[in-house]
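Hi L.,

As promised, SusC/RagA family TonB-linked outer membrane protein:
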Amino acid sequence: MRISFSQLLLSLFFFGVSSAHDGYAQELLNKRISLKVENQSIKKVLNEIEKSAEIRFIYSSNLIKSERKISLNLDNSTLGEALENLLTPLQLGYKVLGKQIVLNRVEPKAGLILKDVPDVTVVSPLDIPIKGTVTSESGEQLPGVSIVIKGTQRGTTTDQNGAFKIDVQDGKAVLIFSFIGYVRQEVVVGNQTAVNVSLKADDLSLNEVVVVGYGEQKKSDLTGAVSSIQPKDIVRANPVLASKALQGQVAGATVTKSDNRPGSTYNITIRGENTINNSTAPLVVIDGLMGGDINNLNPNDIQSMDVLKDASSTAIYGARGANGVIIITTKKGISGKPRVSYDAYVGIKTPAHVPRLRTSEEFYKLTYTDRILEGVTGNTFTAAELDNIKNGRTTDWVALVTKPGIQTSQNISVSGGTEKTTYRFSGGFLNEDGNVVSTNYKRYNLNAGLDSKLGDHFKVGFTSYVTYSNQNLGSQESLRGAFRARPTGVPYYADIANPSENQDVNVNGLAVWMGINDKQVPNPLLDTDPKQSKLQTTVANIMGNAYVEYSPIKGLSIRSALSATYGSTRLGDFRGTWSKSQIGAKPRAQVDNRTLGSYTLDNIITYNMDLGKHKLNFTGLQSAFYQRNETYTIAAKDLPFDSDWYALNTGTVTTYASSLVERSLSSFMGRINYSFNDKYLLTVTGRSDGASQLAPGNKWAFFPSVAVAWKLIDEPLIQNIKAISNLKLRLSYGQVGNSTVNPYSTQAGLLNTGYDFDGTAAYGFAPANLGNKDLRWERSKEINVGVDFGLFNNRVSGTVEVYDRKTEDLILSQKIPTASGFSQVTSNIGKIQNKGIEILLNTVNIASNNFSWNSTFTFTKNNNKLLELYGDGQTVDKGNKLFVGLPIKANFDYQFNGIWQTADKDLAATYKQVPGSVRVTDVNNDGQISSTEGIDDRVYLGTQLPNFLIGMTNRFKYKNFDFSFFTYYRNGTQYKNNTLAGTFGDIGTRYNSLASLDYWRSDNPSNTYFGAVAANPYRVAIQYQDASFLRISDITLGFTVPKGLMSKWKLNTARVYAQVINPVIKSKFTGFDPEFNSSIYQDDLPSMTLSLGVNLSF
């Protein structure tokens, strides 16, 4: 309530009358309120307190300077305490008059003054005027920061630019800087007249807000298992895709890249693999849009990623929460003048691991001399090859098809606004070259968001995101061909002395057959030419979210949000006349077009009730989701032109297909959060989902959960233990579903087929599969126990989670009698268990004025086990490598037992082997190696799932320098080394091979790798290897330029840095990359990137 100065005097006159009501005044001041505001005007804060306490303030706007910005955090405080916290630093006082509180200025003591009120007459000026600026670690100006002179009640706050002014008596004065979400900092003035402070984010603060789905909660109030990643950790390693940021930073998440090609995606699983045939990918929610693609986001636009891991947390998403949920919140505008941020880097990518192949001399010895030695016919060589061998000339084909690449990123954003309306706009560009010639990935991003308050009851806003990307993968054959090509050949036609000797062909100066007689592997350089081979994926994606929120009364909000996405993907594949697949034939091409659109309509009602010791929050939801997926494919051969995939009608069309898949989901959800005395917490959730892809009677399912927590730190017994600064126990149980049931799988399908009709070819349709109307959700039930702790004033803090999840009603193919006309039907059978432990540990190792060292440690241990299979007592499915009692993704094969040696020649002959052949274990000792049931010698060798994962980040800061490095360790994964597969690993054939292989010879009785011998049927046994690895993923050294040096350029912050990605990896795995089961058929080489970057803000 704003009044004139005369009205204010009149109100003060009646204060004498009010003295009879002191008892009532005290009762009024004992009212409890909770309020959290940041960078709001005093007037706005007073209005909020009026609503909460049902009082009225009387004041003069000029007297109290009501437009000044402040920040305030009240948690169940009395009104009296709230007024003291609010008014004292502002040199204001108050008087209670009935239900009115009159604000007045308090005369400062002699020698004191509050300099941020320019109208006030100076009583007795202090000796030293101090000014400065307060920023975050990233250089962002912080308005509303509280600055108080230690030992006094005098202080001020920073303005919209983060600037402040204050006077102190002498250099011994200590300024205390505090702000919500940041670590409090004390600075001795000394002989300084300018004090610039960078506040550190309080990552360990229990007041940190976590997004939990359809709402937010303070970290201290969580009852489920939730992990969060902040912006600095998302962009720390400059990831091309945001999904990379999860690797090693979220306990319980297994993140593995799909391949090494530019723009390649990452596979994410949360708490193990819960299904066999369906997707194990978690649900991604982007600003409320369910099913969004994390790979379409620019990491620089992400504010936070919150990972919901246990069933009690994910039950709020019901049938879509079985694999965990990743909630992504993009950055929003902040009130104040426009802020411009610019982030850029440029780096050079070089192959990090290139296996050495054999030289010409080594290749000749292996494929000719050694083969003759072992009684095997040697390879033949042309005169040109023999000349190269004689003169020591070797062609390094891998070097010819690979190159250093450039990786660069440019991002700019503008944000700002008023108290009522905030905005943020950003744009970004990224280019990542591959190390194979003609491969690269480019992405363009645009992001816009606006939020506005309409009066006192309405809020509206929107967020939109546009992405366009182009991925060129060149040819899938060039790298493979380079590893297989004989080093004795030559790349260029002009280098062949007598081309007619091998009937070579000249294509744009390249020798197709490289001067050799072998016509199996053409010159790999041909496939690096885009006119011969091109594989291109183009993606255009639009995501949008708009909402309106109505708050009719205190504590109640009603929100409607509409989210939509539309994406178009085109995959083009062109093979020219002289590509590996055509070799002289006319070109062929194929194009696949896919459009995917969806919308989600959420209507959410939220009610908060605070009854002192009892706090209640209710969230209700009605949601509708619809998705439409269209695909079109056309392929043609004998194309007359090299026109990529744009003139397919000029050739012979070999394939034309199209499809339409629609699905929808209708949902209702309710959640109650209850707190007693802010110590005992309860969360109850129930969600009901109805899915279109299931048959009547099974469309709807209900998914409940319950979770409790106990803040032991609030118990007197624990509070007496000084070493413990935080302790909370959590227990939860919930049920969730897996909604990735394929649409129409409950129905019988048709396929087109040909048949003979009275001697004439005819075409028709026949049943393709047997429908199952009883098909239902896969359902997971999980119990989770968690402990949150803090020690030594949170110098050491963390979380320990122990869980046990069982997934039943797995969707598998069940064998049925062939009399039905079918051999199998899709059914709900089988059960999987995932149980494990997760540890998150944060430590402040050193904290001083000039130097700090912080560490973050994550540990993930998950045990996967198949509990039931097919439901008919069957415990083994060797064909699909499924075994009850063992993990899925099993390796089931013959067990390597060394190499047959000359001394064992006779024994080897009983197994139809010779010295130099791979020896495998005869498990049943029956004198034969067999895969026949009953005498099968194949055994369980291991699993492709990891035993445990460790991630560790260390951050150092010394004055203006910062240094960090991230280490990642994976243990226990067993992969089949594809670099030893097929012709690539075949010693002594016409193809080149790894120089590092210690292959067997009569004069070198190696027991590790087979020799150049004919009989070798069990060579696959040698491929299984331990793929555990330790990798230093990124190292960063940065320097923040001092403010004084940047002021003339009008920059708020400037930071430059140097970074190296993947500099070190240690592993026993001898393949390309131990992180995933790589193949030379479709891959790039693993790379190391050295980059320089800059972060600027204006």
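The first helix runs from residue 5 to 13.

Thanks again for sending the construct details.

K.
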